[in-house]
Structures are given as structure tokens and as C-alpha cells.
Write a structure and sequence with these properties.
Layout (H helix, E strand, L loop, with lengths): L1 E4 L6 E4 L3 E7 L2 H7 L4 E7 L3 E5 L4 E7 L2 E6 L5 E6 L2 E8 L14 E2 L29
Parallel strand pairs: 3-10
Antiparallel strand pairs: 1-2, 2-5, 3-4, 4-9, 6-7, 7-8, 8-9
Amino acid sequence: MLHGRCLCEGVRFEIDGALGPLGFCHCSQCRRASGTAFSANADVRRADLRLTRGAELVREFESSPGAFRAFCGRCGSPVYKRFEAEPERLRVRLGLLEEDPGLRPRAHVFAADKAPWYPISDSLPQFAERIPPKPPRS
């Protein structure tokens, strides 16, 4: 079980399930939403994330058609992103977690969009856009 909370502690949540791969997103929307060079995210099944406090504080903004960014309406902390086309999946913001999720990032995505003032200097793979899908097995 993982626990998370926003900056003002008005929104709290639990994740009772596996996180998907962790990654760093450098797209311009994630940079603007986080106010930093990139956002650290992981997928979680919607059924595995439970708001335990502050559901009434969560606000959503449609940042692009069908993509909604949820944040605390009091302190502004980004909580998750959801996609209308994939209602069973959320992208949780890892900076809100209280525990180590036990996974490590696997890549930088949308690196072509990265902040010009931030050099990516680790050894993680970098992808200009999304991680390409794996080819089907033959």
C-alpha cells in the first residue's frame, strides 16, 4: 500500500495495487503543470487509487482534448492525469507519494521538448516523444 498527499495535506490517497513503469515526462504541458523541468509519473489502475480525504478539493482541467489534469484546488499540487479514452487508467504524480514505490524510472519521454536550461545527464534512455510500442512477437 502506498500513500500520497498534496502540499496542504487536504487531499490524501492510497494506492493498493501495482504501479506501472515510472518515467520522466519533458513535454511542455507537464513542465507547465509541474513548474519544473519534467514530471515524474507512473500509471495506476483507477480502481487501485482511493481518495481518503479531500475529494471535494480535487479540481480538473482539460489540458488537451480528452486529457484531464487533477490538482488540489487549495494548494495547486498536481495529483493525477486521466484520459477520457482510457477511464480505467490514471497517471499519478510521484512527488506526492510518502513511501518509496520500489521502482525506478525507466526513461525520459518527450525529450525533444525538454527545457533548454536542463541538461539530461543520467544514463536513462531518452525518447523524442513517447516510448515506441514493442513490436508484436512472431
